Amino acid sequence: MTVQARRHSAAYKSPSPYNSRDTDIEKQPTAGRHTYHHHLSDDPDSDDELLDDNNVADSYPPPIVAGGSLRRPHASVGFRVPQRIMRWLCLALFAALVLFVLTLFRFTISTSVSQVAVDLPKVGAPKPPQWESFPFLNRYEGGISSLVPRSENVPEYPGDGSEELAMRTDENDEQKEQEQEANKVTKRDLHPKMLSKVFNPYPDYQSPEYIGKYGEKRECFLNVENSLRVPSIQSYPGVPKGFPDPALGSNTMLGIRDDMCFDRFGRLGPYGLGYGAKKGGIGAGMEGHREGADRVWEDVPPVDFRQVDWAAAQHRCHTANRHRFKELPEPRLNRFVSMPVGIPKVNIPPVQDSRKEPPKVGSERLPRTAVVIRTWHDFHYTPEDIMYMRSVISELSLMSGGEYTVHFLVHVKDTNLQIWSDDETYQRVLDDALPEEFRGMGTLWSEPQMALMYPGLEETLTRGLPIHGVYRSTYMPMQYFAFQHPEYDYFWNWEMDARYTGHWYHLFDKVGEWAKKQPRKGLWERNARFYVPSVHGSWEDFRQMVRVQTESGTNSANNMWSAANGAGGNTRSAMHQQGDKSIWGPERPDERDIFEVEGEGIPPTSMDKDQYQWGVGEDADLVVFNPLYDPEGTTWLLRDDVTGYNKEKGMPPRRTAIITASRISRKLLTTMHRECSLKRHSMFSEMWPATTALHHGFKAVFVPHAVYVDRRWPTRYLESVFNAGRNGASGGARTSIFGDREHNFRGTTWFYSAGFSPNIWRRWLGLRVDNDGGEQQELAGEGRMCLPPMLLHPVKEVNMVIDDGEKAEDR
């Protein structure tokens, strides 16, 4: 830079008088130079130098450089490490870090790695549930040689067990005698103390009162010639000595007789048990205790079921009794749209009635009811399954004169089977799906078909499953089946793994009648609780208890509002017991989701004015066999599987009944169908019917049938576990038995995961299970088992011993 340029640069600021020096700065020693003070500025020319105060007194005139210009002195600043040294320091620091990382990595790849034994604290196995510590009950396996009248029976449970101790003493005395022949099974005197007799639960069809009301009931037969009668089942009066009472529910309260019991021959002998396959039986039940079994075939000889066509027999029966029901509508022919019941291609001959007079017609018409058995196209039917279906068709359809019609609703799981391509494919798949004797009674459906019938549903893929799948939407095919079959007023949705030791007509008839008698007031609240007779007392006592619990709440550890649950002494006392709002009429969802239909349950008066009159005499739209509980707040995994509803203000009100076995009215199924089609609403299978009934005010009833337990539960503890939800209900809280605590059902006779139900059914059939039951125990003990009416679920794949040899030919 020239001297002239420097002058112009220095001209931007007037020189400070402290900067004037007479001495040439270049001649001064280096140590005498001044320190710089840097000012932060964006202007490169704004680096003004200020002198330290100590140097002001010793100021010198600026040196004179060439051209008379003055060189700006360097201002003194703090010591700054040269950049070269800083670069070396940073490099050293980086090298040290790399060396440190490499050193650590070296230890991880050492070739001399060895496992070091570390003593970890010993953790024991998870503590089993409390109920597993309870002792087993023994008198379920009582035999027919120990029968006593029900009124004289002292039950092993829920009594004090004195009867059991007395019986064990007798068994010990007998065991001493048996020890002499320990390896030899000898037959004892096992003649039943009572004789079996025909069990007839049907109305008196021949009475003038019945004929005047419903008309003459014509008898139905198994063959075209009307010569092969439908055999009747037999029961024994009384029960085995010490037989336990049910822990939950009551058959007596429902009107179901429990003063008798059924052995396997009296119950299933009419349907093929106990005689050989070469004579038309199943060839099972040939061994074991058979004293008195032949009485079953005294009135009606063993039936050769190889010659029976159940579809044709059912059709003839309905035709002969059509005067008792309303006229059938015209059938639809399109298989894809109407889902008709498959009819054999052979022409069914017209009914040949020997009586020339027309049947007498009553003043009223009976409702038609369909019993829809849910199955799938590749289901394997065991001989035991076939006996089960024979009993259902005989007792519900044929012997009632057509009051029930049995259908098989067959799920085609394989989408490669193009059942809608042509009639031949449809018929072939349908024929292959059912045993030969049941062909003509089935209807096919598939999940792609349901997707076409109910398009537009929100797909949430709950648990990775589609909304139109059978798991999440079990009732979709039922909805469409009901829509296409207007002749039926009610539909039983029934499963292949349900069994009943009693009579099917007796069960369905009494359950429907009891539900019809129930008043609407407090119904949803009673529906939400298990009835434990040994704790709650009579049904009237139970009803009043539920009313108090609903109005005032409960003060127990199972109630989150309760003081006993540690709600805190600082909270208001009003929070310690908080009641619930009773349901009276429809419980609506969000305003945008309301879908009003005809026939909704609108209360005729206020709840306070009702004297338990509304609903009495009204047929229930929904009948279930487990409580209708509130899933909100529970640990049930599928409580939030709700499709198509507005959830901005929370979930809609819901109710759930575990196990889909139920009776549903046409009105309810049609409403579910329209909700799916028009509003795009749906829920998980076990929530959908109950919730629809709740939203529309339809009558729903939980029937407290008899449920037995395999262990000696303390009754009050049992009640607190099964009704552990909010305010004494079974649901509505995390403490509910539905969800994480469902293991408590394993020792019961009715639940999807119950283990006691399949065991007791197999032992009753004479099979050995877990070293209990079987032929030897029957012959060395009290004979074959005899059980009162029990509804059992699940019972799957019962493999019986089939005898097709010479013994089978002789019987």
UniProtKB/TrEMBL annotation:
The keyword DNA damage does not apply. The keyword Repressor does not apply. InterPro entries: DUF3405 (IPR021822). Residues 1-10 have a biased composition (Basic residues). The chain crosses the membrane at residues 88-109. Keywords: Membrane, Transmembrane, Transmembrane helix. Residues 165-185 have a biased composition (Basic and acidic residues). Residues 1-49, 149-185, 568-588 are annotated as: Disordered. PANTHER family: CHROMOSOME 19, WHOLE GENOME SHOTGUN SEQUENCE, MAJOR FACILITATOR SUPERFAMILY TRANSPORTER. This is Major facilitator superfamily transporter. It comes from Penicillium egyptiacum.
